[in-house]
Amino acid sequence: xxxxxxxxxxxxxxEEYRRAAKASDEQNFEEAWHHLERAHVxxxxxxxxxxxxxxxxxxxxxxxxxxxxVHGQIFRLSLAPIGNITGRLPIGNSGRSNVSAFARMxxxxxxxxxxxxxxxxxxxxxxxxxx
Length: 131
Known about the structure:
- This protein is an all-alpha fold and 131 residues long.
- It has helices spanning 9-25, 29-43, 47-63, 67-86, 109-114.
- This is DUF3703 domain-containing protein.
């Protein structure tokens, strides 16, 4: 996905989930987390995909027996609907339990393009282009 073409959000999510599953199957859990974090940033402002991203993180945490992460993902699954309904989401947050559920984070340029933002990071409000 490093080409100059900008994939749709759904295509981006499908590819990141595919890469995460492949890495997990190969027991490369650090890489699997990386892809799930990227998916979370893209999915975050849409309730269904946002919950799916945390569910997949919960599955990986369970598989790796990372109980801190399991608890963190259960907490985030409970918060996701509230954040989406109120619009109070920490833009760019990786979705992992090793960072505050309320912390804003920088967004990678590639992900900014998928979100329809300027890669310079000035526009931090995601635009939903998937109608």
